[in-house]
Fold this protein.
Amino acid sequence: MERNPFVLNFGKVPTQYISREILIDEIVQELTAENAQNNCFMLTGTRGSGKTVTMTSIEKEISTFEDWIIIRLNSERNMLEGLVAKLYDSKEFITKFIDTSINLSKFGIGVTVSSKPPVADIESALERILKEIKKKKKRLLVTIDEVSNTEYMREFASSFQILIREDLPIFLLMAGLYENIHDLKNEKNLTFLYRATQYEMEPLNLTLIADRYSKVFGISYEKAMDMAVITKGYPFAYQAMGKYVWDDKKHELNNSVLLKFDEALSHYVYKKMWSELSQKDKWFMSFIVQKEDMPVSELLEISAQKKNEFSQYRERLRDKGLIDVSTHGIIKYTLPRFDIFVKNQPQ
């Protein structure tokens, strides 16, 4: 039996993956430009919006260039020490340089250089390594997924700012939930991150989704578009819809498929999102999901709230990716069948 080409695993690039080619090409071109203007890029979006998969695609594109070194870091661990340790293992010329020039025995990295005193400052060691990388005409791309405002992340971002001032060849690509990146940017000494290029994960094109469904399932474009519309272009929903339609004997959208689709969205994404909302956030969402789109004036009327009372919640819900307020005076929920989920939550 042919394997299901759709998957629900977060971060893993599925067989039936719709690439964000324009976004990926733009970042790759900026990174590889001879005189790159930007050293820091950020991908933001809700859970399941394709941040990790997009980052992985960028890493793969950059890895085809011989003059690049790519290192992945975890924001929950000591990032400066982790970066130096991974650099040591990455390229022979760096290993040789450290073993002959820098004594990193204090950090358990490399061999002990008896003629050199142990390095006490890992940031200084990183600066020396980057100077060697620059001398070899190489560039370093550091990628960080699931960015959050940790002590290690703040320390690394501060050091990164110093390193780019020194015109060293280090570039940073981060992916994270909007609120986590927002918290990080608002740190007193990290406001330079506001100048970084930020990309929000927009919904996938429904025409591309419908075309893919039509080809994979051998169904009419009209039926495929009906499925695509239900997903609202949400990448996780695209995979979930595809998975359960594939599992259906007739490869058709039916009530059984929709039940499984709703359960997957609830279990993997929506319950976590819902748990992170305040009671007032949830209260407003219970009104917002009553219509596909709603005039703000109508929302205020049925909720008996004043405009200034709603404004802070409007911003919070927008920043969490739950509502779209791009059309003046209109508010609509963004996630597929989120109305079904909200109506089933205890009040």
Q: What stands out?
A: Residues 206-274 form one domain. The mean pLDDT is 92.
